[in-house]
Specification:
The complex is a heterodimer of chains A (108) and B (243). Chain A starts with a helix and ends with a helix. In chain A, helix 3 (71-86) packs antiparallel against helix 4. The longest helix of chain A is centred in the first third of the chain and has 25 residues, at 4-28. In chain A, a hairpin with a 4-residue loop joins strand 1 and strand 2. Chain A has helices at 4-28, 35-58, 71-86, 89-106, and strands at residues 59-60, 65-66. By secondary structure, chain A is mostly helical. Chain B has 243 residues and is mainly alpha-helical. Chain B contains 12 helices and no strands. Chain B has helices spanning 10-41, 46-56, 59-70, 75-85, 88-97, 105-113, 117-129, 134-158, 172-184, 188-207, 213-231, 233-236. In chain B, helix 2 (46-56) packs antiparallel against helix 8 (134-158) and helix 7 runs antiparallel to helix 8. The longest helix of chain B has 32 residues, at 10-41. Chain B starts with 9 loop residues before the first helix and ends in a 7-residue tail after the last helix. The chains are: A mainly alpha (108), B mainly alpha (243).
């Protein structure tokens, strides 16, 4: 059974998740943007991916603490180099999983 | 697999979209199962879990919501927290909007539902490579959504019996993000922007709890990158080897 409270919770969560996904798309995709904004948005993917990846590699625990020696980071180095060299998404994912699995077995 | 032009017949759209989605799906399965197990332990039925996954479709928000539910938080507090967690999608939605010019409003509204960290990064790269269109991108959104909803429900039904951490699958999304980041490093300016974002994000993530460091670091780095592009155009002109 789904309680009414739980339904409201999910609807509320859905709304505050959907609006940030929808508003820029709705506002920006049907107009010509100024050059500075286009150039700024062009830099966002590199920035946001880096901002997503790096903290999870160099911090551990909750609250987060700096950690420059952990399996996630150790595996990331060869995986990153492999991606640079081959530019293969599938290969990178498979290699990352294999190395992480091996590292967990032998170092963890 | 370079083809002369993106064909539009339904079969090839579906095939391309599904084929492109597999790294994300691979990563979603263990996380979805783990979420389902956790949510079930917190007292949610598989139906309730599925309802949340369909209405919200945001991994980190759902984990936070279940943790807060267990801690006895109220609806308003959970919704407010989820709102701040998802503000980063403002940036992603803005960046991907450039590729959806002229699309009908109702398709835009449907597309928005499926914008996640993963589908965003994957679709953006595909759009840049060419042979990609909004229908294929929408397929990626919905295939990954279906896998997410399915794995959370299965986790809630009996995910405790599925071995966790098998075959390094926990690392699938990290490896995918690393490769997608490599694709984004298309010249010195992008490398510099990425380095600034990573460094600022790492420092901020140590200083402040939560995940607001993602938005803050991205905005700071892109703004710094734009400044560098205007102030030192010779750096901005240095291209990567694949350009």
């Amino acid at each position: 059974m789904i309680s009414q409270d739980y339904l409201f919770l999910c609807l509320g969560m859905g709304l505050v998740t959907y609006v940030p996904r929808w508003a820029p798309l709705f506002a920006l995709s049907n107009r010509t943007l100024p050059l500075w904004l286009v150039e700024w948005l062009d830099l966002i993917p590199a920035a946001i991916l880096s901002a997503l990846i790096l903290p999870s590699l160099v911090t551990i625990g909750e609250p987060r603490q700096l950690s420059l020696w952990n399996i996630d980071l150790l595996v990331a180095v060869p995986v990153f180099l492999f991606a640079m060299r081959t530019r293969s998404l599938g290969g990178t994912v498979v290699l990352g999983m294999a190395l992480y699995w091996l590292a967990g077995k032998f170092l963890g | 697999m370079p083809t002369p032009a993106a064909t539009t017949d339904r079969r090839s759209v579906l095939k391309d979209g599904i084929r492109a989605s597999w790294p994300v799906c691979l990563g979603y399965v263990p996380i979805g199962l783990a979420f389902g197990v956790l949510a079930q332990k917190a007292g949610l039925s598989p139906l309730a879990i599925g309802l949340m996954s369909v209405l919200v479709f945001a991994g980190s928000s759902q984990f936070i919501a279940v943790a807060m539910l267990e801690a006895g938080s109220g609806i308003a507090a959970i919704v407010a927290t989820v709102f701040t967690v998802n503000l980063r999608h403002l940036l992603m939605s803005s960046a991907i909007s450039v590729n959806l010019k002229g699309l009908r409003k109702r398709w835009l509204s449907l597309f928005a539902y499926g914008i996640t960290d993963e589908s965003f990064a994957l679709n953006l790269v595909r759009f840049r490579e060419g042979n990609w269109d909004w229908k294929r991108a929408l397929t990626v959104n919905h295939v990954t959504n279906a896998v997410w909803v399915g794995s959370t429900v299965i986790g809630g039904l009996g995910g405790a019996f599925i071995p966790a951490h098998a075959f390094g699958i926990d690392y699938a999304l990290m490896a995918m993000f690393l490769c997608l980041l490599v694709y984004q490093l298309r010249g010195s300016l992008y490398v510099v922007t990425g380095l600034i974002a990573g460094a600022v994000a790492a420092v901020l993530s140590l200083a402040i709890p939560g995940n607001s460091y993602i938005v803050a670091a991205s905005v700071i780095a892109a703004t710094a990158g734009l400044y560098i592009r205007r102030r030192y155009p010779e750096i901005a002109r240095t291209k990567g080897r694949d350009q």
